[in-house]
Amino acid sequence: MDKFEPKILGFFCNWCTSSAADLAGTSRLHYPPNVRPIRVWCSGTVDTSYVIRGFLEDADAVVVGGCHPADCHYINGNYKARRRIKLLKTIFETLGLGEDRIYLKWISASEGVKFVREMTKITEETRAKGKSPLAGRWDI
Amino acid sequence: MNYRVKANRDIVGKAREFFTDILDKNLLDGIIVPLELPSGKSYFPTLVKDKKLIERANPFVPVFQVSVATQVSKMTRLSPFEGKIGVVMRPCDLRNYVELIKFNQIDPTNLVIFGVDCYGVFDPNRFKDMAISGEKPADKFWDMVEKDDESELRRACRSCTTPVPNRYADVVLGYFGSSGDLLLMAQTEKGEEILSGFGFEEAGSLDEREKIVSSIKERRASFWEKVKEETRKETSGVDNLLAFLGNCIDCHNCKDQCPICFCKECFWESPTFEFQSSDYMDWANKRGGVRLPTDTLFFHLGRLAHMSSSCTGCGLCEDACPREIELQRLFKMVGENVQKAFDYEPGRDIEDRPPLTTFKEEELLELGE
Ligand code: SF4
Ligand code: SF4
Fold this sequence. Notes:
The complex is a heterodimer of chains A (about 140) and B (about 375).
Chain A: E1 8-13, H1 17-26, E2 35-40, H2 48-56, E3 61-66, H3 77-94, E4 102-106, H4 112-129
Parallel strand pairs in A: 1-2, 1-3, 3-4
Helix pairs in contact in A: 1-4
Chain B: E1 2-5, H1 11-24, E2 30-36, E3 43-48, H2 68-76, E4 85-89, H3 91-102, E5 111-116, H4 124-132, H5 137-147, H6 155-158, E6 171-174, E7 182-186, H7 189-196, E8 201-202, H8 207-235, H9 238-244, H10 253-257, H11 277-287, H12 296-307, H13 316-320, H14 327-341
Parallel strand pairs in B: 2-4, 4-5, 5-6
Antiparallel strand pairs in B: 1-7, 1-8, 2-3, 6-7
Helix pairs in contact in B: 2-3
Bound molecules: iron/sulfur cluster (2 copies).
One iron/sulfur cluster binds near residues 321, 322, 325 and 327 of chain B.
């Protein structure tokens, strides 16, 4: 059988984490192709339903990436994102749906190296966990 | 101040007299209270103007058809009442009311809240069947209260630890530990204003009431622990969860009746969910097939994400489900954990901000890194 390749869905804010991904690219740093990045204006725009949809569309992990606390381009979007991630993790934990597959990462525009490191780590962790229990179900 | 109206067990009769007098003396311009429908088979909250209709009123009726908080929201969203209106509410619905005020869905101006003691209610279909077969559920209820036998009541009620109204009731109409009398307790100035003119006698010691209420609370808390543990087992993991929700036909009755789901346009009914035939084919190609209707799990997980922080466990979702999915225990279990995570309790304090409408800079530091 082929080696399991996890699908990682990323919602990265425009001002920090997406810029870090760009920086990684222009610095010719490689990060795993397992990560499917989606650029959003702010981590605070990521509704809980985007993350749930991601899992129901076969993501094995979902990462929300935003600016460090106090650095949000929109002042406090990242704090709102943090509450939503806490909420989702609590629901997933209560229902045994794999809360450890939900990630929140603060990665600033200058942290191309951190971006690569975190994405690599998440990919490896998810590869070790295997397929998400919500992925690939026809009966949802 | 707490008052006692000698009732000789005719507690409902005394409550009717009280409301009739209120309308008579023009203390209020109307009262929203459950009224027996002309069919004699059911009760619905009714905005009563004509005091003659109060003959059919039963503020304690053991059936909970719809959220009164939701009805008051519909009535006051555009403009508040001009005259003073009394609203009879059971404790769970009073918590719904507090939540809806926080979400700016109710204008409480000119409302006077009459909270009632609540031993619990029958499932609405069972209430109807009993009424049709002549079992008189509204009367039978009082025997059950007296014997402290709750076995026939809804599971949601048997696991409810708030049988008495919170502090947002202006007046409490009580029967726990009243020795067959009607207790009238003013909790606010507005409430005292209504009660003070009646010359009721003082209630005296309420020790018996406190004893009964705390024993009900204790029993129900331990019952809920049991139910919660069973629910955790039955819904843990995607296979179990899908089996639990398996009969869902995606009718959305649960969210329509949920007082906390107040959005006028629900995301799950938006054009986001109008897919092309090719989208369905894509899913089928990827997964081998696609259950129809699809996205029922998404609907429930999404609803949990949007509203479980304010779920009061009232059980109206479950009552409304045509497929008898036991939603209340699922939502209450998840809601409790979510509420704990944010140190939040729906209905506790009108000044609390619902968890998803606020944040602190220094919190949840384990998240992010
Ligand atoms: S989810 Fe169910 S129990 Fe919770 S508030 Fe809504 S109707 Fe009541
Ligand atoms: S009321 Fe019942 S069948 Fe209808 S959407 Fe809710 S859970 Fe599904």
